[in-house]
C-alpha cells in the first residue's frame, strides 16, 4: 500500500505572508454569460443556466509552498548564468527524503553544521547524493497567523554548503524562509554591521547551484525520518525565480 503525506501549505490569502495574494472564485452562475459567448448560444441554452467554476489569482512566485531557483539568489551561480525554475532538471525533484529535526532550536537561531551532524547521528542516517533534505522547525504550526513570518529557526551558510557538498541539490524548510527570520538577521546586523550575515544561506547559491523549498508543512506527520520518497516538481514558470509546488512524501506501508 502507498501512503501519500501532503507537505504543502495552500495558496491562499493569509496573514502569515506579508507579500499579498489575491484570490477570486467565480461562481457557476457568473460564468454562464462567458460560456454562452464561447459557444455562440444564449444563457438559456446552457443546462440549468450554470457555466463553469473559475478562479482568478494574483500572487508572487514565492506564495505558498514553492521551490526557489538559483536565479532567485543571484544572477550567477559558480561563475555561470544562474538558471531559472523552468531550466532545472526534473530529476532533481524526486528522490529519497530525510527529515532533520530542529524543533529544539530557539526562535531566530541559526542551524549549524554541528546541529545537522548531531541530528543525523540521532536517527542513524548518512546523507547521500540526490537526497531531498527537509528541515523541521515546527514553524508551520503558525500558518494562518501573523506569527508565522517570524517563527522558527533558519539555515546558516556553512550548513547549507555542507549539504551541497554531500550531493544534495534540493532541500527545504517548514518556515517562511530558508535563512533565519528577517527580524533575527536585522537584530544581529544592527550590532555587528557584518554584511556577510545578510541572507547568507541563500547567497550560497552565488557559489554553488542548488534549490530549496520554503513553506513546507506536516513534517511531524511522517511516521519515520527517512525511508520515503519526496516529489516536489515546481510549476514551469518561464524565466521564474521560483515555482509553486505540491510537495508530497510517498511511503510504502
Describe this structure in words.
This protein is of the alpha/beta class and 253 residues long. The chain has two domains: 6-10 and 62-252, Glucose Oxidase, domain 1; 22-58, no CATH class. Helices cover 17% and strands 24% of the residues. Strands 1-15-13-7-9-11-12-4-14 form a nine-stranded mixed sheet. It has a two-stranded antiparallel ribbon with strand order 2-3. A hairpin with a 2-residue loop joins β5 (76-77) and β6 (80-81). α3 packs across α4 (157-165). The protein starts with a strand and ends with a strand.
Concise synopsis of the structure shown:
By secondary structure, this protein is α/β, with parallel strands linked by helices. Helices cover 17% and strands 24% of the residues. Helix 3 packs across helix 4 (157-165).
CATH topology annotation of the largest domain: Glucose Oxidase, domain 1
Helix/strand-derived category reads: alpha/beta
Q: Per DSSP, what share of the residues sits in E-state strands of 2 or more residues?
A: 15-25%
> Which spans of ≥5 residues are poorly predicted at pLDDT below 50?
none
General form: globular
Write the layout of secondary structure elements.
Elements: E1 2-6, E2 22-26, H1 32-39, E3 54-58, E4 66-68, H2 70-73, E5 76-77, E6 80-81, E7 94-101, E8 110-111, H3 113-123, E9 132-136, E10 154-155, H4 157-165, E11 170-173, H5 182-192, E12 211-214, E13 226-231, E14 242-244, E15 248-252
Parallel strand pairs: 7-9, 8-10, 9-11, 11-12
Antiparallel strand pairs: 1-15, 2-3, 4-12, 4-14, 5-6, 7-13, 13-15
Helix pairs in contact: 3-4
Amino acid at each position: 500500500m502507498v501512503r501519500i503525506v501532503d507537505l504543502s501549505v495552500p495558496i491562499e490569502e493569509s496573514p502569515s505572508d506579508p507579500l499579498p495574494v489575491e484570490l477570486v472564485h467565480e461562481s457557476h452562475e457568473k460564468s454562464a454569460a462567458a460560456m454562452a459567448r464561447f459557444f455562440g448560444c444564449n444563457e438559456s441554452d446552457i443546462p440549468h443556466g450554470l457555466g463553469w467554476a473559475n478562479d482568478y489569482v494574483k500572487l508572487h512566485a514565492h506564495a505558498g509552498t514553492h521551490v526557489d531557483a538559483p536565479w532567485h539568489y543571484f544572477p550567477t551561480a559558480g561563475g555561470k548564468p544562474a538558471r531559472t525554475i523552468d531550466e532545472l532538471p526534473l530529476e532533481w525533484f524526486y528522490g529519497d527524503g530525510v527529515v532533520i529535526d530542529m524543533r529544539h532550536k530557539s526562535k531566530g537561531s541559526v542551524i549549524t553544521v554541528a546541529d545537522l551532524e548531531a541530528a543525523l547521528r540521532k536517527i542513524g542516517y548518512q546523507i547521500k547524493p540526490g537526497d531531498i533534505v527537509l528541515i523541521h522547525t515546527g514553524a508551520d504550526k503558525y500558518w494562518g497567523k501573523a506569527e508565522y513570518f517570524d517563527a522558527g529557526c533558519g539555515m546558516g551558510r556553512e550548513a547549507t554548503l555542507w549539504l551541497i557538498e554531500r550531493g544534495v541539490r534540493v532541500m527545504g524548510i517548514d518556515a517562511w524562509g530558508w535563512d533565519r527570520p528577517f527580524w533575527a538577521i536585522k537584530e544581529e546586523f544592527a550590532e555587528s554591521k557584518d554584511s556577510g550575515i545578510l541572507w547568507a544561506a541563500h547567497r550560497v547559491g552565488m557559489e554553488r547551484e542548488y534549490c530549496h523549498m520554503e513553506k513546507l508543512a506536516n513534517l511531524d506527520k511522517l511516521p519515520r525520518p527517512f525511508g520515503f520518497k519526496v516529489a516536489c516538481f515546481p510549476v514551469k514558470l518561464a524565466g521564474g525565480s521560483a515555482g509553486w509546488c505540491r510537495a508530497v512524501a510517498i511511503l510504502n506501508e
